[in-house]
């Protein structure tokens, strides 16, 4: 029943085979979507090579550099989508960053620069990309981003990322309200803790995962594939009445009080 054939999907945030974005890209491809993939450019081309090799089996028709701190690269990315595809149906936003020093210890020690950078990359980038995608979603569309429980409750060492995710979730609601008349839906998935390149910077991440495995109703955490399945659902016509929501894919951990 879940069919994304004929849909053009841009996936951001793939760093390696542990990335949640990678799990999402695989499931979108399995559902028949035509993929475009962005990577973070660097002077030595390390990410470009690694991501290109990883996504090759998915046969993306667009493979583009996009640093969300660079307005020209964002503009070039969406110009390329317009030139190649003509329209965009799905945008997957899996971008987050904070300095490792700001992900442990006292939250009050967060530097001004670290706070600003974390919110620019992790929160404002959704607003940027959604605004660039909107004119290309001429037949409606679906935008999905990734959040975490630390945006609504205190999680040890999550610190400034908790603030960034809180802002991200509120951005989802404002964007959903703005874009709803154009039949563009905006939602977030709050995934349980998964060991990824990004999460490895959070102090005590393995303890966090083990705690979820002991406490969550399903007595485990979740996989990239499970998050990918949820994202594919939100991007499909099966979720046509869902927007502005945060869907928890966390083995039920969010419902527990202790």
Automatic annotation (TrEMBL):
Its Enzyme Commission number? Answer: 1.3.1.9
- Which pathway is this protein assigned to? Lipid metabolism
Residues in a coiled coil are: none
Would you indicate the residue range of the signal peptide? none
Q: Which UniProt keywords are listed?
A: Fatty acid biosynthesis, Fatty acid metabolism, Lipid biosynthesis, Lipid metabolism, NAD, Oxidoreductase
The reactions it catalyses are:
a 2,3-saturated acyl-[ACP] + NAD(+) = a (2E)-enoyl-[ACP] + NADH + H(+)
Q: Does the keyword Lipid biosynthesis apply?
A: yes
GO molecular function term, any single one: enoyl-[acyl-carrier-protein] reductase (NADH) activity
Q: Which family does it belong to?
A: Belongs to the short-chain dehydrogenases/reductases (SDR) family. FabI subfamily.
Question: Could you identify this protein by its name?
Answer: Enoyl-[acyl-carrier-protein] reductase [NADH]
């Amino acid at each position: 029943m879940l069919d994304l054939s004929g849909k053009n999907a841009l996936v951001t945030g793939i760093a390696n085979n542990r990335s949640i974005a990678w799990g999402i890209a695989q499931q979108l491809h399995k559902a028949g979507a035509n993929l475009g993939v962005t990577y973070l450019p660097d002077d030595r081309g390390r990410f470009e090579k690694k991501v290109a090799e990883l996504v090759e089996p998915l046969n993306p028709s667009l493979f583009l550099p996009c640093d969300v701190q660079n307005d020209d690269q964002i503009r070039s990315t969406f110009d390329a989508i317009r030139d190649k595809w003509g329209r965009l149906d799905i945008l997957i936003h899996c971008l987050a960053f904070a300095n490792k020093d700001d992900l442990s210890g006292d939250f009050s020690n967060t530097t001004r620069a670290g706070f600003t950078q974390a919110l620019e990359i992790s929160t404002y980038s959704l607003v940027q990309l959604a605004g660039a995608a909107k004119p290309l979603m001429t037949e409606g569309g679906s935008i999905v981003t990734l959040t975490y429980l630390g945006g609504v409750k205190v999680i040890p060492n999550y610190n400034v990322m908790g603030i960034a995710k809180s802002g991200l979730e509120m951005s989802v609601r404002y964007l959903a309200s703005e874009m709803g008349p154009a039949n563009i839906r905006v939602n977030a998935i709050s995934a349980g803790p998964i060991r990824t390149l990004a999460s490895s910077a959070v102090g005590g991440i393995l303890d966090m995962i083990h705690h979820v495995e002991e406490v969550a109703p399903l007595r485990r955490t979740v996989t990239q594939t499970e998050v990918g399945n949820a994202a594919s659902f939100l991007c499909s016509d099966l979720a046509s009445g869902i927007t502005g929501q945060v869907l928890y894919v966390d083995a039920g951990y969010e419902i527990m009080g202790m």
